[in-house]
Amino acid sequence: MTDHDVPLDFGDPADLDTLRRELRAWLAEHPLPRRRHGEPMAEFLHRWHRQLHSGGWVGLDVPERYGGRGLTALHQVAVSDELGACRAPGVPRIGYLAHALLEFCSEEQRARLLPRMLSGDDVWCQGFSEPGAGSDLAGMSTYARRSADGGHYLVNGQKLWTSYAQYSDYCLLLARTDRAAPAHSSITAFALPLNRAGVTVRPLRAANGDDEFCELFLDDVRVAVDERVGAEGDGWPLAMTTVNYERNALDTGHLSKYGLLLERLRRQLREHRGALPDGLVSAVGRCVVDYQVLVAHARRRTAERLAGRAAGPESSVDKLLMTRAEQRLYETALAVLPEELHRDGGAVYGEYLYSRAASVYGGTSQIQRNIIAKRLLHLSSAS
Amino acid sequence: MEAEEFRLVREALRAFAADHRCDAAEVGQAERTTAQKALDGLGLGELRRSTPPLASAQECALLAEEYGRQPLATSFLGTVLLAPEVLRLLAAAGRHAPYGSRPTVALTRDLRFTGRDSEADHVAWDAEGAESALWIGDDGTVRALDLGGPAPTTDLLRVVREAHPGTPDSVLGRLDPEQLHAWRAWALVMVSSELVGAAASFVEQSTAYARDRSQYGRPIGSFQAVQHLLADATVAVEACASATRYAAWCLDHADPDTALAAARVAKAEVDVSAVEAVYAGMQVFGGIAQTWEHMAHLYLRRVRVGATVLTGTVDLLTALALPEPGPQVVEAP
């Protein structure tokens, strides 16, 4: 224990309770949307996003002048938690992108981009990985060449795993702006409108049949200087900020999804206890522990951030805990709900397949362990 | 407590632990008595004497973490945190006359919460310096048990003694159901906190060793296999710390049922992850950690027994998977 480990403020229970009651009352008046037959998941979630925003329930911890509520991340946790308890879809997965824009955009860009991101008027995706730059993200080769007069960039390259690019209006794009400089200081970020000439989006079909992942082809795409986010060379720190937040279950809206499934498993146990093997009670209990530890962990991180500790390499711990909770939960779900094991195309089986990606996306579990070893434990690497 | 005051209390406890940490499993009685006197001299017994108490549960839990970091042969949990809290709750409800003896807590022979039968086989747990042991029934009845001779335990630094009903039977009072929940949650959190401290400290020590120890001409901590072992141990410790610290906050701010659920989560996490973390640390130390002289087995013994103290992991998992509907019957927490 370090001297940083002081009693933390996990929020005023009365204040958070008021917020939860407000949300519950609002949900009672604004019934949850139903997914239409054949409606792509992304479109359904987008409708939900706009509905939530109309009630003021998106971006609680974003300042009011950028379209948020100006509250704290603890309020955001309470909303995430309550949505799960009310069996609603989770919060839109924009928290980590919003944090990156807040930190790196100019004032003009923040005012122009953030309110439309929060309202769902603009849908965003993230163009980081490439076919040749996965775990070794800094090895990317997409190149943004500055024009001779300095007025714009011409971008060429290919991005991979840009989730929901086919439904998106903007891409937070990383590209190299200097081929000679070291990787970590030569990457620059751009807010690229996806309707720009030279951009081609091609969805990939994932193992669960969804078309979440996309390829993005960039051929002589012209990007204005004022579409650059931060200065040239700020791309790497921006990427690290983004992934640090992305690795927190809270900022990706996963918590409410887990809570929802756990409630279903507990119900199944209560109703069919005699028919299920005894070991499954302990297995579900272990999933409850994983989930509640994750909630406690997200609250602790949030409380630490409010106490002035910024998101940093310890987010790799968050990501590994999230992976542990998600993979064990879906594994257990298939045991407790055996009919789902044979229902390809069913929601649970689809989510189960997707849970296998948890140890890959946002940095593999092996990369997270490398980060913990080097940055938190200060173990030197082999030369 | 003010932040500065808490800092001073923690520093005093840290200094005590540095002075009295055990380097070996054999600790003479004179040494134990001296150490216990030094610990008592810090006046930590005052932290939870009054209502409202001087220190919050969150502060006490952080002190228990600090205490757990070093191998110590004194009693902090039993005689400073667990038993006095029973007396404070009784006094707060006006159900208890002043009690002159210095108690620790009574547990069943397999170190679980007492509850059903006060005549059954009991031990006084963490009994260094204790004069009696408090037995707490499922209906909240609190009895003082007399102490007997030493009882066997594999946590060599922790004193456990036989305990049996006194004559005449000594009933000190009765906790109401809410208080009983609150106390059991308190006990689960404080025991978990000590184990978090032990696991965290041991992983830090093994990490330091990995930086120093060289094989094949370079520090073993530069090998990815060792790095990933320690990274996983770090994640395990962080999971324990998050669950336990949040549960401690719940003791201060949430209703007793919520606090008890959070405490069960914390203990269930610690039961598994603190032990795994110590296993990983021992693996990094290699052969030296397998010797009697090395402190590794003191940590292992503490967390391994700790993982069974108060309630079994399977009981915790069952209670969490199948929560009792409505007002809970007080059963195994």
Automatic annotation (TrEMBL), chain A:
<feature type="domain" description="Acyl-CoA oxidase/dehydrogenase middle">
    <location>
        <begin position="125"/>
        <end position="221"/>
    </location>
</feature>
<dbReference type="InterPro" id="IPR013786">
    <property type="entry name" value="AcylCoA_DH/ox_N"/>
</dbReference>
<dbReference type="InterPro" id="IPR046373">
    <property type="entry name" value="Acyl-CoA_Oxase/DH_mid-dom_sf"/>
</dbReference>
<dbReference type="Pfam" id="PF00441">
    <property type="entry name" value="Acyl-CoA_dh_1"/>
</dbReference>
<keyword id="KW-0560">Oxidoreductase</keyword>
<dbReference type="GO" id="GO:0016627">
    <property type="term" value="F:oxidoreductase activity, acting on the CH-CH group of donors"/>
</dbReference>
<comment type="similarity">
    <text>Belongs to the acyl-CoA dehydrogenase family.</text>
</comment>
<dbReference type="InterPro" id="IPR052161">
    <property type="entry name" value="Mycobact_Acyl-CoA_DH"/>
</dbReference>
<dbReference type="InterPro" id="IPR037069">
    <property type="entry name" value="AcylCoA_DH/ox_N_sf"/>
</dbReference>
<dbReference type="GO" id="GO:0005886">
    <property type="term" value="C:plasma membrane"/>
</dbReference>
<dbReference type="GO" id="GO:0050660">
    <property type="term" value="F:flavin adenine dinucleotide binding"/>
</dbReference>
<dbReference type="InterPro" id="IPR006091">
    <property type="entry name" value="Acyl-CoA_Oxase/DH_mid-dom"/>
</dbReference>
<dbReference type="InterPro" id="IPR009100">
    <property type="entry name" value="AcylCoA_DH/oxidase_NM_dom_sf"/>
</dbReference>
<dbReference type="Pfam" id="PF02771">
    <property type="entry name" value="Acyl-CoA_dh_N"/>
</dbReference>
<feature type="domain" description="Acyl-CoA dehydrogenase/oxidase N-terminal">
    <location>
        <begin position="16"/>
        <end position="121"/>
    </location>
</feature>
<dbReference type="InterPro" id="IPR009075">
    <property type="entry name" value="AcylCo_DH/oxidase_C"/>
</dbReference>
<keyword id="KW-0274">FAD</keyword>
<protein>
    <submittedName>
        <fullName>Acyl-CoA dehydrogenase</fullName>
    </submittedName>
</protein>
<dbReference type="InterPro" id="IPR036250">
    <property type="entry name" value="AcylCo_DH-like_C"/>
</dbReference>
<dbReference type="Pfam" id="PF02770">
    <property type="entry name" value="Acyl-CoA_dh_M"/>
</dbReference>
<keyword id="KW-0285">Flavoprotein</keyword>
<feature type="domain" description="Acyl-CoA dehydrogenase/oxidase C-terminal">
    <location>
        <begin position="233"/>
        <end position="377"/>
    </location>
</feature>
From TrEMBL, chain B:
<dbReference type="InterPro" id="IPR009075">
    <property type="entry name" value="AcylCo_DH/oxidase_C"/>
</dbReference>
<keyword id="KW-0560">Oxidoreductase</keyword>
<keyword id="KW-0285">Flavoprotein</keyword>
<dbReference type="Pfam" id="PF00441">
    <property type="entry name" value="Acyl-CoA_dh_1"/>
</dbReference>
<feature type="domain" description="Acyl-CoA dehydrogenase/oxidase C-terminal">
    <location>
        <begin position="190"/>
        <end position="313"/>
    </location>
</feature>
<dbReference type="InterPro" id="IPR036250">
    <property type="entry name" value="AcylCo_DH-like_C"/>
</dbReference>
<keyword id="KW-0274">FAD</keyword>
<protein>
    <recommendedName>
        <fullName>Acyl-CoA dehydrogenase/oxidase C-terminal domain-containing protein</fullName>
    </recommendedName>
</protein>
<dbReference type="GO" id="GO:0003995">
    <property type="term" value="F:acyl-CoA dehydrogenase activity"/>
</dbReference>
